[in-house]
Amino acid sequence: MKIKTSQQKWYAFGRYMVPVAIIILWEIIYLMLGEPAMASPWQSVVELKENANRWLGDMGNTVFTLLISFIIASISGVILGFFIGLSAFWTKTLSPLLLGLYSIPKVTLYPIFLLIFGLTLQGRVAFSVFHGIFPIMIICMEATRTVPDIYLKLAKSYRMSFMQKARQILIPAIMPQLVVGLRMSFSLCFLGLILAEMFASYEGLGHRLVHYMSLNQPSSILAIIIFIVFIAFFFTFLFLIWQEKNEQKIGKRQINLS
Amino acid sequence: MAEPLMKVENLTKVYNSDAKEVVALKNIEFTVQKGEFISIVGPSGCGKTTLLEILSGLRLPTTGSVKIKGKAVTGPQRSIGIVFQEESTFPWRTVLENVEFGLQMQGMPKAEYRDKAHKMVELVGLKGFENSYPFELSGGMRQRVAIARTLVTQPEIVVMDEPFGALDEQTRLILGGELLKIVEQTKATVVLVTHSIQEAALLSDKIVVLSARPGKVKYLIKSTLPKPRDATALTTPEFAEITQKLWSSLEEESLTKRHDVDNDSSRVVGQ
């Protein structure tokens, strides 16, 4: 049985209080700005309830595209980062380049994606992958590069094959950092996708958002934002649970999600 | 006399860096009999760890050879187990899973390796900690896990690189005593590299004293300490005699080394 310390209780309390504070702040802004510039939290929730069925298609579309993008970004990012990290030469050669690419405001490159892919699902996936692939690749590369030498010596002393070494030593050793990288990659894939949907798409939550912006319907805009925040929180929470499980094993700091 | 289990013959190791040759080890020769406990001591920088890596097949000598039962060691092999100085337990595996690791890599069936690992965990005094993760253990306990992981594969010879180097002297001697008991029970042959004179004197049947770089065998001291030994041996005259011999030989080497360093620096200053 888990026994919560008073400090942990305070953490949990703080975590619940933040959304409450945000809602209060939201209400205050609404009272200050008034309609039609702003909608109240209650109006937005009512709007969400009334239109939820109509928006479910967009939500499904966004989540589906997001998962495809994330799978592509994470698998290719992990594989590339892992193999680059194994070689000192490639790490030294490519890491400044990757860090440079990572720091580019990627939205500036959107016209190029638009020219290549047009208003297609592939275009949105490509832009989303372009956002998410760099953090996971860089983190995976660094984690692999810094696997302690002693583990590699040990692998050599047990005459392990590359596959054995990768499965039994390298992957478990980089796992804690890998999960953090996957979480970051997911967030950035989501960002890239919403941007792509906002700029050039006929479907998805990003498209809905822009649509209601042009109609100047703040209650609908905020209701869509609630949808987006829900998706972001749901998946981030799953990643945090995974991260905590990994970190508990190796005795690193605990997030105490429970 | 029976054929030695390990024979080190005329072993030399030269490193080449920036067109400069560094002779780390020169003409090292000694033998290890089955069941013997040998320690290698020497001033820091004399090539102890290099020698250990060559003995275990992780590095190759420039000239000379290491033979086990007459067969040259050309790489890591199952007959040689290694315990490293650094923290080497896997933090993502429990104590039991860490101990099982070597057997698992040998392709042993799970039921068999689990049983062997349980017995070994008990032998190293970690019963009750099977499901603990390394971060929950002390440094000494973690090193016992590493020793258990090596011994459970029953290698012909166990090579240890200052396994208790990171621990305080008191824990080091207690664990050393425990190691002797484990070695007696498993009938393992051990080559231990250490810089602790007391540890070498307490544990060894034979002590190889290396000179300052390039490392050469300066003395070979045979222990007269009766067996079985434990911490009470620390107060015997035999123990005092061995530590005295070791101390004087190492002091001599350290002074030689210092003299060389002083001469080098005076040359630099004089230029």
Automatic annotation (TrEMBL), chain B:
Region named Disordered: 252-271
Highest taxon, organism lineage: Bacteria
Residue ranges that the Swiss-Prot or TrEMBL entry lists as coiled coil: none
Gene3D superfamilies, A to Z: P-loop containing nucleotide triphosphate hydrolases
Ranges of compositional bias, category Basic and acidic residues: 254-265
Keywords of this entry: ATP-binding, Nucleotide-binding, Translocase, Transport
Record GO terms (molecular function): ATP binding; ATP hydrolysis activity
InterPro entries from the UniProt entry: AAA+_ATPase (IPR003593), ABC_transporter-like_ATP-bd (IPR003439), ABC_transporter-like_CS (IPR017871), ABC_transporter_ATP-bind (IPR050166), P-loop_NTPase (IPR027417)
Annotated ranges, domain ABC transporter: 6-237
Protein name, UniProt field: ABC transporter ATP-binding protein
Source species: Peribacillus cavernae
